[in-house]
Write a structure and sequence with these properties.
The chain is mainly alpha-helical. The protein has a single domain, classed as Hypothetical protein af1432, CATH 1.10.3210. Helices cover 64% and strands 0% of the residues. The protein is built from 11 helices and no strands. The protein starts with 8 loop residues before the first helix and ends with a helix.
C-alpha cells in the first residue's frame, strides 16, 4: 500500500479513552480525555454561538468545537499532568509546554504529509486565524472540569470541593460573558437529578 495512506494517527487518537483525568483525586467515576474532549467541544461550540448572538460577530463555532476535540490529544503521549503539578511554578509550566509541543509534533508526524498542516493547526494551534477562538476553548475546558467537580460532589465526594471553588474562581476571573452566562443559566441543571431535570 502507498505510504501516503499508511498512518497511525487515528489509531493513536483512539487511545484517548485510556488516559484518565484527575489522577491525584479520589474519583467516584473515572473520566478519560475522550469523554472530556467531547464535552469541551460541545461547550466551546455553545460559548462561541452565545458570543455571536450577543455581539453580532461571526466567529466560527464549528471550528472552536473542532479545536476543542483535539485540545488534549497530546496527553495520549504525555498523560494527564495534574493541575497542581502542571502549574506549580513558571519553570514547570514552560517545560510542560515544550513537552506538549514535542508530543503534538509526534502525533502530526503519524499522518500522511499532505494532511499534516491541517492537523497541526488543530493540535499545535499554528493558525493565527484561530486565536480569537482560544479563550472560548479554554473556558469550555474549565467548564467541563467544573461539571466533573459538581458531579463528584453530588455523589458525596468532598474531594472535589476545593477544585470546584478554584475552578469557579478561575472562570469568573476570565471575565468572559459567555462563560458567566453558562454558569448562571446552564450549570445549575448539573446539580439536579434526572427526575428534577424532566419536571
Amino acid at each position: 500500500m502507498d505510504s501516503q495512506y499508511n498512518s497511525h494517527f487515528f489509531a493513536m487518537l483512539s487511545r484517548m479513552k485510556y488516559i484518565s483525568r484527575w489522577g491525584l483525586m479520589n474519583n467516584t467515576k473515572s473520566e478519560n480525555i475522550s469523554e472530556h474532549s467531547l464535552q469541551t467541544a460541545m461547550f466551546a461550540h455553545l460559548l462561541v454561538l452565545l458570543h455571536n448572538k450577543r455581539s453580532g460577530e461571526k466567529l466560527n463555532a464549528e471550528r472552536a468545537a473542532l479545536i476543542a476535540v483535539y485540545h488534549d490529544a497530546t496527553e495520549i503521549i504525555t498523560g494527564d499532568m495534574p493541575t497542581p503539578v502542571k502549574y506549580y511554578n513558571p519553570e514547570i509550566i514552560e517545560s510542560y509546554k515544550k513537552v506538549e509541543k514535542i508530543a503534538g509534533e509526534k502525533l502530526v508526524s503519524m499522518l500522511p504529509e499532505d494532511l499534516r498542516d491541517d492537523y497541526s493547526e488543530l493540535i499545535l494551534l499554528t493558525n493565527p486565524d484561530d486565536e480569537p477562538l482560544a479563550k472560548y476553548v479554554k473556558a469550555a475546558d474549565k467548564l467541563s472540569a467544573l461539571v466533573k467537580c459538581i458531579e463528584e460532589i453530588r455523589m458525596g465526594n468532598d474531594e472535589f470541593k476545593q477544585a470546584k471553588e478554584s475552578t469557579e474562581k478561575a472562570l469568573r476571573a476570565m471575565k468572559l460573558p459567555e462563560a458567566d452566562e453558562f454558569m448562571d443559566v446552564y450549570l445549575p441543571s448539573f446539580s439536579l437529578t434526572l427526575d428534577e431535570q424532566n419536571s
